[in-house]
Amino acid sequence: MASNDMTSNETAKHGPGGAGTGAHGAGPDIDQETLLQHEKDTLTHTPVHLMELEAVGKHYGNIIALTEVTMAVDMGRVTCVLGDNGAGKSTLIKIIAGLHQHDEGTFKIMGEERRLGSPREALDAGIAAVYQDLAVVGLMPIWRNFFLGSEITIGRGPFRRLDVKRMKEVTKSELAQMGIDLRDVEQPVGQLSGGERQCVAIARAVHFGAKALILDEPTAALGVKQSGVVLRYILQARDRGLGVIFITHNPHHAYPVGDRFLLLKRGKSIGYYDKKDITLEELTAQMAGGAELAELAHELEAMGGHGELVDQVQAEVAETTGQTPR
Amino acid sequence: MTTLIKPPPALDERVGRRSMVANLLGRPEIGALVGAIVLFIFFSIVAPVFLQANSFATVLYGSSTIGIMAVGVALLMIGGEFDLSAGVAVISSALTASLFSWYFSTNVWIGVGLALVVSLTIGFVNGWILMKTKLPSFIVTLATFLMLTGLNLALTRLIGGSVATPSIATMDGFASAQAVFSNDFIIAGVDIKSPVFIWIILVAITSWLLLRTRVGNWIFAVGGDANAARAVGVPVRWTKIGLFMGVGFCGWVLGMHNLFAFDAVQSGEGIGNEFLYIIAAVIGGCLLTGGYGSAIGGAIGAFIFGMANKGIVYAQWNPDWFKFFLGLMLLLATIVNLIVKRRADSK
Amino acid sequence: MKRISWQRLAVVAAIVPMLALSACSSSGGRPAETAAGGGSGGQVATTPSIKIALITHAGPGDTFWDIVRKGAQEAATKDNVDLLYTSDPDGGRQAQLVQQAIDQKVAGIAVTLAKPDALRDVLKKAEAAGIPVVSLNSGGDVFQSVGAFTHFGSDESVAGAAVGTKLAEEGIKHPICVIHEQGNVSLEARCAGVKTKVPGTEILYVQGTDMTQVSSTVTAKLQSTPSADAIVGLGAPFTATIVKAVTSLNLAGKVKVVSFDLNAELIQSIIDGKVEFTVDQQPWLQGYDSVDALWQNYRGGFKVGGGRPVLTGPAIVDKTNAPAILKFAKEGIR
């Protein structure tokens, strides 16, 4: 398959820094030093954020889906939103992507307070969402998918036709800029690997003028290697100056690429950090809820002695909290 | 070939690996093409009369009356839908033109115009109900199939007083309409009927539409993944309704041929033909699930049907076997498609 | 082509009726209303109104059964009978229709016996219920065994043989008999009848539900069979298509066209010399006589036919008698 030689090819090109490391699926092994070595400035000093949420909340009837969420997105920065299932991540995306409207707090785009009424409005504001289903048609060639719904045409009236040559060229170059080097844009998208498909969707959003990119769990369904590929594309998008919102439940994926981290739990923000203020271990511990995990281990122990499972849970507690098991 | 424009040579050195042959093997209609060639050679050997120009013109004519509809149906199937009412809708169109002109004693061209409106409306209603109710097209068009069958019979008897329409051959405009829809062109002594040309023109236009226009892109997309298409702003509803209206248009063309070739129309005709159209499209490489296929594939499928149908006559075989052969052909063509597609994909 | 603008459609919709008013055809079309031509202006029988069911195996949209029904209706009107006409080509469903007629307590049942085995049981029930039964059209050899007291029909083999005899007289050696419904017993019997008199008869099967396929297959056959000297159509609309195919191949005169059954266009073709002759089984009589026989049975317990089938055909229509029949064909009773 194309992905193999592509990956090796790409590593050579984009080797240095955090960008390349993801490709080898070695995310968790990166230490703080390597990650911070390319930091250009401190985040807090940006005068106007590309996107800014302050104490945003949303409830459906009497169910509170989201409350008191504050976060910012900047050009060329990755803001990670972490949380387990039901933490309120999808509600947050829906507000930003214009599918739902917030009813508490403020949502600013380029310093201007906004309330997005539809996905179209969000797109016009430069916000593009790439959902898990990706909105690509598997049987269609890459270039057709890339321009689907926004085809380039030449000619007039009944002779208006697709500018196939240009569309193919643009697709190839856009994908190349994202770091995907495809042999043939004529091949169906269905033949691409999961990571490459993500990339086509991302590149498409970028090409059609997105300034901010929302990626909804792009690594959730992927293996270690493919996840690495996607993480690299996230960095590519960042380096092209886009503000990226990366939604995930995996801190090992979030930490290497993120600049800011918003942790959600049951609709509430349980922490908002710049990268320099938090380590991967702390992030993981916060995510998993170290105390809860310890309690679980204790419970299991009380119920059935020293089974293999208990050992595992205790080991995990040790890993996440940095303490020795009781 | 998918591309009329050759890719720039400097693109990528690996592009060269995907040869002409591989490209050709990746086309949806390749299985049908191979089948058509085999069948052609086969009948040329067993029935030498098959190779005569006149005989071939007859085969083309027999193919064209399936093929005109198969083109519309193939596009619809690429768009992910079925139309079981297509066979009867042809007759509905012919009946409309015939009965209207006869009853009101108008110029037949007015009936022809009204028939076009009726055909497009049938397509529109099919598509509109489908998009509104989200029912499978199988159910919706099965319902319209039954309703049209009943309407054809009931209205023909009500208006014309019989199960067949009265002949309109002596009416004003008949000769000019016949010149368009059912003419015999004598080219180098060979009698070629106008549906053959209409068919070829339709195939050319729809192929261009499918591969080189935005609408074509949308047709593939709504058939491949309607949700994805909607998410990127493709007007899914109108694309599908348009496809049904396209089938309606083809039905009108064929219906007018039926009317002007035989002066009168039997109200019970057309039932069962919808499957021939679908078979032609499937033999031609259209996936039943949508999103894949070609207009020319449907045309080749119809050509295979025409060759088998007429070839059996030329070869003087017992026609009891015809349906069996047709079934076998369908099976083989789809298997060849499957194998070829898998092989092309694994390259 | 794919996207139709609504404005344009609206314009077309508006223009069509306007044109309809102005652009009338100078010839053809529906004849102006004349005096109601039922042909049955006579007196109505004085017997009390009874219900008679006519149940056929007609598929929808076959001109032949129209004529049968017209005959039956005319007899019904004359005899003060309420005619219940139903049909289904499927044997099992035809039996259900007979059952329904029994449930409705009709005074008589006229039924076609295309599939006698499917109807045997239900006709026994009719007999048990004391409902008289006659058969028509098909079943001349089995009508007694299923309990019908008589049968009105034309024997298909006899009709076929009649055609064969006439063809043989004209020196035809190689006729092609075109069957428009594969597996239909009576159509096969017609061709078999032709073959008994002309051994060189060849059978061609066409798909009767699609005229274009009838046309192209006949053309293919004639192209590949230069020795063919006649072609036999088994139904008037199919013969019309065959005539066109023969004409467009420039074989008119070389290949003689003959037919079974008739309608107005076919008779006109006989007058014009495009078709040699046709064999009519006089379907109007089948319908008329069936209903009338049932009424006669009701009136005085009469049983026409003496336990033997009553033949309604074959009647040969050729150039000599065609002009006289044309008028009746236009009326829809021949």
UniProtKB/TrEMBL annotation, chain B:
It holds the Pfam family BPD_transp_2. Keywords: Cell inner membrane, Cell membrane, Membrane, Sugar transport, Transmembrane, Transmembrane helix, Transport. It comes from the Bacteria. This is Xylose transport system permease protein XylH. PANTHER family: ABC TRANSPORTER PERMEASE PROTEIN YPHD-RELATED-RELATED, XYLOSE TRANSPORT SYSTEM PERMEASE PROTEIN XYLH. GO terms for cellular component: plasma membrane. InterPro entries: ABC_transp_permease (IPR001851). The keyword Protein biosynthesis does not apply. The chain crosses the membrane at residues 30-51, 58-78, 108-129, 135-155, 196-221, 241-263, 275-305, 321-340. GO terms for molecular function: transmembrane transporter activity. Its main location: membrane. It is found in: Cell membrane. Part of the binding-protein-dependent transport system for D-xylose. Probably responsible for the translocation of the substrate across the membrane. It is a multi-pass membrane protein.
